[in-house]
Amino acid sequence: MAHDVFPPPRRLLLGPGPSNVHPRVLAAMAQPLVGHLDPAFIALMEETKRLLRQLFQTTNELTIPISGTGSAGLEACIVNLVEPDDEVVIGVNGVFGTRLVDVATRAGAIVLKAEAPWGEAVSGEALAAAIARARRPKLVVLVHAETSTGVWQPLEDASRLAHQAGALFVVDCVTSLAGCPVEIDRVGIDAAYSGTQKCLSCPPGLSPVTFGPRAVAALRARTRTVQSWYLDLTMIEKYWGEERVYHHTAPISMNYALYEGLRLVMEEGLEARFRRHRLNHEALVAGLEALGLTMAVAPGRRLWMLNSVRVPQDVDDLAVRRALLVEDQIEIGGGLGPLKGKIWRIGLMGESSTAANVTTLLGALERLLPRHGMSVPSGAGVAAARRVYAAQELPTQRGTTAAASEG
Amino acid sequence: MAHDVFPPPRRLLLGPGPSNVHPRVLAAMAQPLVGHLDPAFIALMEETKRLLRQLFQTTNELTIPISGTGSAGLEACIVNLVEPDDEVVIGVNGVFGTRLVDVATRAGAIVLKAEAPWGEAVSGEALAAAIARARRPKLVVLVHAETSTGVWQPLEDASRLAHQAGALFVVDCVTSLAGCPVEIDRVGIDAAYSGTQKCLSCPPGLSPVTFGPRAVAALRARTRTVQSWYLDLTMIEKYWGEERVYHHTAPISMNYALYEGLRLVMEEGLEARFRRHRLNHEALVAGLEALGLTMAVAPGRRLWMLNSVRVPQDVDDLAVRRALLVEDQIEIGGGLGPLKGKIWRIGLMGESSTAANVTTLLGALERLLPRHGMSVPSGAGVAAARRVYAAQELPTQRGTTAAASEG
Hints:
homodimer; alpha/beta; Aspartate Aminotransferase, domain 1; 3-stranded antiparallel β-sheet; globular
């Protein structure tokens, strides 16, 4: 058994995350450790905060990684900003909105849901109606990129509605950050959280968060202690700030990885990176549609980094995903909750978002789908994707970690 | 700046953790990622649970790593077992007992402290008195290895007292696990948590926990939802159990590291590993005392993996530690709280516990102390340590990660 585990299989990670990790980030993970108060680590912390601010497009001082996965960042934002009986308006149109409701309820919040069907964005009307049901909402929370459905959520009107109601505007950027614009300051987002294993293309294990002046003021104005010690930002900020007061031992190696991942993002440039994610998304959609598949989300609401497509009628969801994994070493995601068995979720995140990966996946589907009961026009998917690339300037080809395989 | 961070300096980590990491564990961290539901990762999860049970010396089914550092494991044990107004008896004789009080209070517990001066173990009398003050204690919690003071806490009488009172016995094994015996089943410990960055010699970022049948029954009998979603074991156990229900995305690379770290522990053997920690501790103590230094903890209560020694009168704590770091690349820890400036904490944990590291540190102190105002008998420390080694069978020399330097 022991010898089966390492080396792990080389997968092409085209699911909902983790995504493929750049060799430079893997090399950073293998660097020897220093202490969590070592001057060398403190220098890395300072650089990480600076790079995270660039990525979040903010000047927020309190911009740091929480020592857990994206869900820990979610919980950190909620438990630090919510006190019992605070009203919290939450947009719910998938797994992560549902999770926010659960976490806020555990924190003692009175939750007001602004709902939309899974696969659609939360409308301004639904949000305004939920806000109107509140007496004095403390937070309005939306999921920017709903990883469970592939829906992109517009934020600007919501930010205005939240602030008109006197609430803080909080956004889940787990899957959007580093794949499409997340403009904290311009949009007026007061607090946001993300994850390392999506478009940042680092291993899972840290959750970058940013708190703006209004959110920090709310933190300072709390009348009760934050219910979680581990996620208490009033303490964590003293370790990441100038005081360097020991709180918990920072995950040193994961912070090495995040730092190196952020450097790669900045070397590519935000605009180029977003363009790359968009182009590969467009090529994939063209390819999938040319094969006769149907996207699950309407145009204009589709995420570039998480493409959900309907499982064709009479095709066995699990059998196709298993064949992709076993024969082609490709991971894609299945549906969750009401979408279980109904959609595939194809991630093109960070290092995984490459033209080579798009055509590799389309080629594999062209080969596999006929075997699983759906006839497809041979070569049409790859050809359609190539036409998209040909029609545009090709972005710099990045992402050398793809375990490309024609099977 | 960017070029200053990697490669990080090669430190000899002889502080309170992180400890030095074996090259095989670093190599595991650099393996490419698989998904958190990949069959290859599920196989690794199963192996990890099996190895953790061996290490904890338990048959507890619910033995898994929590996705955060040791403090997240601490909070997980408390919030899963405590409901508001439950009485919790906590042994307090250092930072980590104090932290337990804070976490339990945030969970709504009524805390009854069994106190001892920092540097001493909690006595059976103090514990019995605190238990007697409770009506019906839900938990009795002790810190096995108080990292802030270097005190080893005996557990067997406490386990009996806890169970006589009908309470669950919960133990903090963050620093003891893999360095000295932690016998969950024999001692009757109902729940325990540890960390990866101490005697397991992995990077920080995971916290192994184990829950026995009585603790699992208490979890099942809860009347209120666990206040933390991220740490809710009733959900996490469904991902680590046969159901494989997605909860949060597991930190893949950190789990690679833990698995490889556990394999190294088992290759060495628990008995041999404990003997090694004990012998290097004895050699270090002999060396420090030969230099004229005084241990801060009485014999019989000293930890093998964390040696606290008084800062000599008229010697500048910080100046000596800074010189060790800058000139010798050696990290040792300072005191915390009431012991700040009064003790040094010298970790000999996992890969850091080697004869070479003991003599390297003693040599460095022999050179540095006279420069900082304390005359020491030249060569006496190293010689005393060598006599300890000569008097015993030398354990297998492990720990190739030491950045040994005679300065």
